[in-house]
């Protein structure tokens, strides 16, 4: 079946929905919002800490936020991208408020601002400790009330459509690759439909599911990044995987692991060994409020030195009622597994959290493929550089969704639907035995990435990961050619592609920089052992 939409949006977190609302209200055409599960299951909803923006002009200013972002990014960040996000952040907050999102306020009506690691001022707007959930809730309501948006839940994008599908050879050197839409799997018919579009936006989120333990939901298999890479689009910065230093250590809960927000360290939480000993003073003068890469490496090293499977976060010295008020969900979650955080340490461990790289885009959020935009965690805007500053990601998504909307609305009148696109060839069958192979291969990808391409890397580990992923790639591509395309095998293909990109770009970076740390090119004296 062929379906036509002027705007095709793949992904339904804050990035996809912000863009959808902007273009739908322009009157420039029909909008399809495609999500592979339900609207509420997105990385956005898992973000606890908050969203960064300069709002308290008595003490804060744009220059401070820009400087904090550049420092956290290890000075690899693109200054133009940083300036664009920081200066447009207040308007992004206004847009969210207009769409019905609520942020906590003090009794005097001012925003109740938090401070997080790497920030020099209190500038984090939040809604208790479930800010992402509140943003997702507000946007979902707005999107569902917008008649010009067709919401397609449980639909899975298999490939984006380019000249390649018209029989034209496309390579990474082809200068004028264009996107004409996407092939999308319908869950009811189990058929792959052809979605033609004038403009396509990829907002598929992150890649955490390629690791054994992640704060991301299971759906974070890097689909958009993999599709664009296969379509010969530019992907960069994939070596910069952010490991959140403090996920709740609870064996059995790995996808997603429960996140203990950075705001808890901003609130005064102290990292300790299980015996109560502090350790961050050995690594950084900012102690527990150092940037995430430093904290995650410090925890990883302490766990290895002492043979531990976790360290602890301590808020027992804080006022119990204040703790419960600020972190009601974390308090309830920990209590559910027998830990009263007002009296006991919280067991924490680093795990895969955020992808700083992705589909390379310009300041209009357009990728190297014409008519194809990418926004949110799947994109590489240059904002995060070597390491994302806490709470910069949600605001990046809102600001770049606005840039993408403006640029695509300015240009869409010059685009037409490409009627020459052939329908998907869906020959093949899938047996139960093949499903077992796919499940096993998915587990193997997670083990390879966690063991060899984790917080601390080496040439030997990376080469080993490369060799094993290459074998999995060959096997999976062979299987994909002879079976019906299902969500499972497509996700496996994407995970292998993403694992390969992280590994290859880690091998290519011959230095320790930001989140990429290798013992073969150490940067910090304390890590040279």
**What is the number of strand segments?**
16
Helix/strand-derived category reads alpha/beta
The CATH architecture of the largest domain can be given as 3-Layer(bba) Sandwich
Mean pLDDT over the residues: 92
* Proportion of strand residues: 5-15%
Can you write the helix and strand succession as a string?
EHEHEHHEHEEEEHEEHEHEHHEEEEHHHH
Question: What is the assembly state of the chains in this entry?
Answer: single chain
CATH homologous superfamily identity of the largest domain = FAD/NAD(P)-binding domain
CATH topology category name of the largest domain? FAD/NAD(P)-binding domain
Number of helices: 14
Low-confidence stretches: 525-529
Q: How many angstroms does the end-to-end distance come to?
A: 60 Å
Tally of domains: 3
CA-based gyration radius: 22 Å
Briefly, what CATH class of the largest domain? Answer: Alpha Beta
Biggest sheet features: 7 strands, mixed
- What would you call the shape? globular
Helix coverage percent of residues?
25-40%
């Amino acid at each position: 079946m062929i379906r036509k939409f002027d705007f095709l949006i793949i992904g339904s977190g804050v990035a996809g929905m912000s863009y959808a609302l902007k273009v739908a209200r322009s009157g420039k055409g029909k909008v399809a919002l495609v999500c592979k599960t339900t609207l509420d299951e997105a990385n956005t909803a898992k973000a606890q800490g908050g969203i960064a923006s300069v709002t308290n002009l008595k003490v804060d200013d744009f220059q401070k936020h820009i400087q904090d972002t550049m420092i956290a990014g290890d000075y690899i960040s693109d200054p133009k991208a940083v300036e664009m996000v920081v200066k447009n952040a207040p308007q992004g907050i206004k847009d969210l408020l207009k769409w019905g999102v609520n942020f906590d306020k003090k009794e005097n009506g001012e925003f109740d601002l938090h401070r997080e690691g790497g920030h020099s001022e209190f500038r984090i707007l939040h809604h208790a400790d479930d800010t992402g959930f509140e943003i997702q809730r507000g946007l979902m309501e707005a999107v569902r009330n917008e008649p010009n948006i067709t919401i397609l839940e449980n639909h899975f994008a298999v490939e984006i459509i380019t000249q390649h599908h018209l029989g034209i050879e496309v390579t990474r050197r082809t200068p004028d690759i264009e996107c004409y839409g996407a092939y999308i799997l319908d869950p009811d018919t189990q058929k792959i439909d052809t979605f033609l579009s004038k403009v396509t936006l990829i907002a598929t989120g992150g890649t955490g599911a390629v690791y054994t333990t992640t704060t991301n939901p299971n759906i974070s298999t890097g689909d958009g990044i993999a599709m664009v890479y296969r379509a010969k689009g530019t992907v960069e910065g994939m070596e910069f995987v952010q490991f959140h230093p403090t996920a709740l250590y609870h064996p059995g809960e790995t996808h997603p692991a429960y996140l203990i927000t950075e705001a808890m360290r901003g609130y005064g939480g102290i990292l300790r060994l299980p015996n109560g000993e502090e350790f961050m003073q050995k690594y950084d003068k900012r102690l527990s409020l150092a940037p995430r890469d430093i904290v995650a490496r410090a925890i990883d090293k302490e766990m290895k030195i002492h043979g531990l499977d976790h360290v602890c976060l301590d808020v027992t010295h804080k006022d119990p009622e204040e703790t419960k008020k600020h972190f009601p969900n974390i308090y309830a979650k920990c209590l559910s597994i027998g830990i009263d955080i007002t009296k006991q340490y919280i067991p924490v461990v680093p795990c895969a959290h955020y992808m700083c790289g992705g589909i390379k885009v310009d300041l209009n959020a357009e990728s190297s493929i014409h008519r194809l935009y990418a926004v949110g965690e799947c994109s590489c805007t240059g904002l995060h550089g070597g390491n994302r500053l806490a709470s910069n990601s949600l605001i990046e998504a809102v600001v770049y969704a606005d840039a993408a909307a403006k640029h695509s609305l300015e240009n869409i009148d010059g685009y037409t639907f490409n009627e020459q696109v052939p329908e998907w060839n869906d020959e093949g069958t899938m047996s139960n035995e093949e499903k077992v192979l796919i499940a096993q291969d998915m587990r193997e990808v997670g083990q390879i990435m966690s063991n060899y391409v984790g917080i601390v890397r080496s040439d030997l580990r990376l080469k080993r990961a490369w060799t094993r992923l290459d074998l999995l790639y060959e096997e999976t591509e062979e299987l994909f050619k002879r079976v019906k395309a299902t969500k499972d095998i497509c996700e496996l293909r994407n995970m292998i592609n993403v694992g390969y990109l992280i590994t290859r770009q880690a091998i290519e970076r011959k230095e320790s920089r930001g989140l990429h740390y290798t013992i073969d090119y150490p940067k910090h004296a304390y890590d040279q052992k």
